[in-house]
Design goal:
With about 160 residues, the protein is of the alpha+beta class. The chain is about 25% helix and about 30% strand. The chain has a 7-stranded mixed beta sheet, with helices on both faces. Strands 7-8 form a two-stranded antiparallel ribbon. The radius of gyration is 15 Å and the shape is globular. The protein starts with a strand and ends with a strand. The protein binds coenzyme A. Coenzyme A (COA) binds near residues 86, 114 and 119.
Amino acid sequence: MSVVVRTLCVEDYAPIIRVLNDWWGGRHMSDMLPKLFFEHFGATSLAAEVDGVLAGFLMGFLSPADPGQAYIHFVGVDPALRGLGVGRVLYERFFEIARKARCDVVRCVTSPVNVSSIAFHQRMGFVPLPGDAVNSGGTPFHSDYDGPGEHRVLLSMSL
Ligand SMILES: CC(C)(COP(=O)(O)OP(=O)(O)OC[C@H]1O[C@@H](n2cnc3c(N)ncnc32)[C@H](O)[C@@H]1OP(=O)(O)O)[C@@H](O)C(=O)NCCC(=O)NCCS
């Protein structure tokens, strides 16, 4: 399978939003990915294509608050193409972008119930930061991090 990776542009918003909730197993995610991300962070965000068709995407940016930090807001891979290395390709390309910008850490957050995401990130070298609670798998998380009931695992990786 040949995966082509390119940066995102605003025209990618509609096709990604169309599949987003399905790719997250029916969870309502589209409110968390408004078009402004495509308008402002396209240059540090990526699409993966297989035979010219969207196979995955990564929405990431360099932190304006901390010049040493890059942040991944979203990553998603077509369910039919999971486990084939598409997520790894997207992350490794983003790490290159972050290194070139002299970042030394990549951060992201995920839900404590998203055990696949936690496993993927740990495999990619991320470690969960200490929190105030642990999920059933023993992963620490921050309660109410993104508002009431919106718990998050905070993940960090040194470049
Ligand atoms: C998480 C996600 C992006 C992973 O993409 P993917 O293309 O399937 O991942 P890859 O095939 O590149 O896997 C990379 C590594 O992670 C591991 N991995 C991926 N998913 C895993 C899982 N569910 N459990 C354990 N390990 C996993 C792979 O074994 C692989 O390890 P290796 O390269 O050392 O052999 C994909 O499952 C997805 O889109 N999930 C739904 C959206 C989501 O939850 N996104 C994250 C939160 S924003």
